[in-house]
Design a protein that fits this description.
single chain; 244 residues; 5 helices; 42% helix; 25% strand; elongated
Length: 244
């Protein structure tokens, strides 16, 4: 059974983490010169009656050829997996189709991933746009390219001073009056609201179309990722570097 691109992608992350871990450890060893040094020392006394001392040995714990070989083996494994993915990505393509209509033809996986990110951002953006207040009756004004509401009127009042009679006049006393403030209508406010927001049905429709296109992009990506892996020759980078 042919190896599929999605299978290579699935194992690449694990291989990368493991190989980078191995290379990190090899780098740490390479920076410890003392591990590369060893010795074998024996003591020979001058005479038979002189003190005998035990041999001394220090084992070499790291070898440059061994470290280089380990590095090359680990890196070659990752290079091979990545080569399979990248070479296959050159031929792995699929159409983005919505309701039988081809929106993007023969799109490579990398572009499908890019589109998915852009449309996810667009979906979030549209979701943040306000909608028209449904308590108002809106019509589109072609002159301003804005929505406008029906006209409403409210009155404006002002206070005027008005005398009132507290006690009417009598033959003996004049009338007693007092000035009071009274609110009277001074005019009217005629108001038409304007808005650059979206009608709710239009916003919901745009979100639904974006979601449908996102689903089609994901389906196309899955189809492209089902492409058979391109068989490549073993990566020979280190064969070249270590050639003597």
């Amino acid at each position: 059974m042919a190896l599929k691109l999605n299978q290579v992608i699935a194992v690449e992350k694990g291989v990368k983490a493991r190989v980078y871990g191995e290379i990190t450890n090899l780098n740490k060893l390479a920076q410890k010169p003392d591990l590369f040094n060893g010795l074998a020392r024996t003591y020979q006394s001058k005479g038979d009656d002189d003190e005998k001392l035990p041999d001394e040995r220090k084992r070499v714990q790291a070898s440059a050829p061994d470290l280089i070989r380990s590095f090359a083996n680990a890196a070659t494994e990752l290079m091979t997996v990545t080569a399979r993915k990248d070479w296959t990505n050159c031929v792995a393509k699929a159409d983005v189709i919505v309701d039988g209509k081809t929106i993007v033809a023969a799109a490579p996986v990398s572009y499908l991933l890019f589109l998915e990110k852009q449309l996810t951002d667009f979906h979030t953006f549209v979701g943040n746009i306000p909608v028209l207040d449904e308590s108002e009756n809106w019509t589109f004004d072609t002159n301003s390219s804005l929505f406008k509401s029906d006209q409403t009127s409210t009155h404006r009042t002002k206070k005027i001073a008005k005398p009132i009679v507290l006690y009417p006049a009598t033959p003996e006393h004049p009338a007693q009056t007092q000035m009071i403030g009274e609110d009277v209508i001074a005019g009217f406010w005629n108001q038409v609201k304007q808005s650059g927001a979206m009608p709710k049905p239009k916003k919901l429709g745009l979100l639904a179309r974006t979601e449908a296109l996102l689903r089609a992009i994901k389906e196309a990506r899955e189809a492209a990722n089902g492409t058979d892996v391109v068989v490549t020759a073993p990566v020979a980078i280190f064969d070249h570097l270590l050639e003597e």
